[in-house]
histidine kinase
Amino acid sequence: MRTTGILRSWLRAHALFGDSVMAVVVAAFSVATAVVVGSSAPGPPWEPGVPGGALLVLGCAPLVLRRRWPFVLLCASVLPDVVMVALGYADGLTGLVTLILLYTVAAYRGLALSLVAAAVGLLGYAVVAALASDPGGWTRHTFVFVVASAIWVVGRSVRLRRAYLAELVDRAERLERARDADTRAARAEERSRIARELHDVVAHHVSVMTVQAAAARKVLDTRPEAAKDALVAIEEMGRTAMREMRGIVGVLRTDGETGELSPQPGMVDLPGLVDQMREAGLRAQLWIEGERRTLPPGIDLAAYRLVQEALTNSLRHAGPAARAWVTVRHATGELVVQVEDDGRGRTGEFSRGPDDRPGHGLVGIRERVALYGGNLRIGPRQGGGFEVRARFPLKD
């Protein structure tokens, strides 16, 4: 079975060789058939001679280039048949050549040209039958018409099937390209999401650890116990950061292993976050207004990250004596989150790096809020300080 498939593929790739072999075989059988028919006819045995043999070979020669010019060769193949019948030579299997060329036109050319080819083939048969000494009866003519029609239908079916398969292949390729594009877009979106999560985790915990380390350095000589407490807080904060980063990066596993993923933080973790900021030196308070309700996971995480980023920036930029307020309001159809501080702050950007360039905190928060159709306000607060206020719409 495999050998047959390899041979078929090779012949398809070398069509000229296969058609040449077919033309030689048909010509040989045509000459043999003419000799047999001529010998069985009344009178002396028929000798093909040079003219008759040449006409038979000439009538089979169009098969060599049948795939390149099938219609032209079909028209040309009628001429040797007419000449042989007019001169009284036996036509051998030249009629088979006409049928093969008719099939080729129907299988490789359009509908209009294939219909013209069928008309040319039938017209050539009618001329040969009219010139023949024994034209045959209506039974023979009907049989030839039915065979020619069947061959034409088979050729058209092959062409339609080939076009259908080509369309399927093209559609599969388009779907494959679309799937690859969707996969790349999904990967880019996932990388962007993970980058935002990592930024929020690293920025928050590293900022708190930096403040704690600075406090420990200042009181190391005068108050060793306070410095020890700060170092313990740094250790705990580092472990928490590693645990959260391990949970975020765990989604990148591709080896099928199940990572030790902890749940993503949410609004229920705000008291712990506020306690962490108090331990780091920021006087933070939390107010929750309205009846608490179950939030969608995406909004729950986005609101938590917003508060985390806002408190981290207050810790870094508001000053040592600053206070911060976190207000969470559960209203009908919306969630309002507001973070304020009364420090000196910065009025240019929400978050800046050490070299005074804009950080990624503002961009990340805007993307999170916009993703869920919310409104965000970031800017100076009346009476001094800084304010971050976001509203998330909630659907019942």
Remarks:
- The chain has eleven helices and five strands.
- The first helix runs from residue 2 to 13.
- Residues 41-46, 254-260, 346-359 have pLDDT under 50 and may be disordered.
